[in-house]
Here is the input.
Amino acid sequence: MRFFDPHIHVTSRTTDDLERMAAAGVRAIIEPAFWVGQPRTTAGAFVDYFASLLGWERFRSAQFGIAHYCAIGLNSKEANNEPLAREVLELLPHFVLKEGVVAVGEIGFDEITAAEERAYVAQVELARDNDMVVMVHSPHRDKKRGIARSLDIARELGLPMAKLVIDHNNEETVKGTLDAGAWAAFTIYPHTKMGSERMVEIVKQFGPERVIVDSSADWGVSDPLAVPRTAKLMLERGLSAAVVASVTWQNALDAYGQSGQIDVEGLLAKPTIDQRQLFADNSVLRGQDPRVEAPVPN
Amino acid sequence: MSAASFLRALLEARLAPTGRAWLDAAVGELAAGVAPVRGSALFSQASRHARRVPLAPTAQQCAEAGRILEGWNPERWNVLEAMRVTLLLARRDLAADSGVQALTELFRYADEGELCALLRSLALLPAPERFVWRAGEGCRSNMRSVFEAAALDTPYPARHFDDLAWRQCAIKCLFVGAPLWRLWALDTRLSDELARMALDLAEERRSAGRPVPPELWLCLGTYGGARGLAALERELASANPNALGRRAAVLALARAAQRERFAALECANEPALRDVLSRVRAGETSAPTFRHLEPA
Ligand SMILES: [Zn+2]
Here is the structure.
């Protein structure tokens, strides 16, 4: 099977992970801009981070036959440093219109503060004015209220619900998200949020429509193979191949394909690897022979 | 004809009507003057109206480009790059500080495709020497697309790089596997030092049991000396499985004006070397001759 993991921070993952992901069938990924585990102190740090998502990380994934797209935005945690947030919001128009940027994201709420709301509003407006998709990170604490607020604001600002993806849903929030007409994404974390077992039950109960599975793998304890692992469990638990394909491939493609930035035909073609390409002053190759035109095992 | 009108004419047949309309509107807007963030947006949004497919100019069109600016060859440009360079050239203030500021802004936020277009445009700008640091940065990239946009099919390095940057640019082609013969006017800036660097690289590769890039031999010219000749003889050895390397070595011997050695090779008339021998006999010894050597 082939998989689309529409939320993974591969900047924090090693080439071993990329190799395992390709081998497990992960063919396309989206890397949303988020915080980096600790707060940045200058706008320049954001410029370089956004540039790395568009440049080095896309190139690095391509060397393993994985198509890398990204979402650009100011995350909710760092929205609380308002002087810096204002600078970053001013920078965003330089990045969100670039090739391969499929959404404004991940944005939304963390502590549900006024500063977070101001940043969210500005970015939903930016997305709306440029006909873009929005990827919303929902908070760990007070999740239900955070999601409701994210949906309400987007609706008030005139963003079509079909262009809104709410991520990190759980059993308590899925109904509200789907009823609003937005896409409901679920992050499979090994220990928190949502495990594969619970995901199977949710798909059984709510069906596959507008439901998306992702890994959100990052620099914490997380699993870059969460999407293929969950698909395997779903099949074992009797969900049909068509349903599994919807929630681990097609729905993400449909949601983020609305950006016009995904080359669907290219994705469907058998991916190949060309490790000869080099980027900046690094190559992921350190003396070993490049694997050129090697088909990806999926 | 100006570079801008030449590119616009090339794009006429290569864009959809909506793409042409968008481009003309954007050109009008840029010519009238825009805020930096708007200029940046137009530069990015070009990707919505032109694709990264080969521009594929005809041989006549490439020749025309060379008449507009000697050394400019858009043979390997893509349509999106041509559109972006057309946008850049639409600005009226390129000679002024505000034009430099606009370019600085575009470089600061450029993604890979934008960076390539910016680098390809440099030789076409007024007073291009103002951007020599940018071109050098492009050559320091190991991403082949970016490096080649800065280094190849443009007169920029030969005209504006100092000796150190020029030699690094030439040797870097060999490292990243970029076609050195496309480095414009290579033959006008050969030197003892470049030949030494090339020969050191050849020895390094041989010590490591790795193949020597065939185009390395183009760096010798008449500067290889005895060490160069010895290295070429080793490359020429019939046991060398690198057929293209052997042909390149024949070309290099001719470029080093080794007439007697060349005559001996003609006498031997080995089938694998016939093509390069006949080219040299016809006087084709410039670096771009390498293009016509049959690949291994
Ligand atoms: Zn995330």
Observations:
- The two ends of chain A are 7 Å apart (CA to CA).
- Residues 241-257 of chain A form the longest helix (17 residues).
- Residues 278-282 of chain A have pLDDT under 50 and may be disordered.
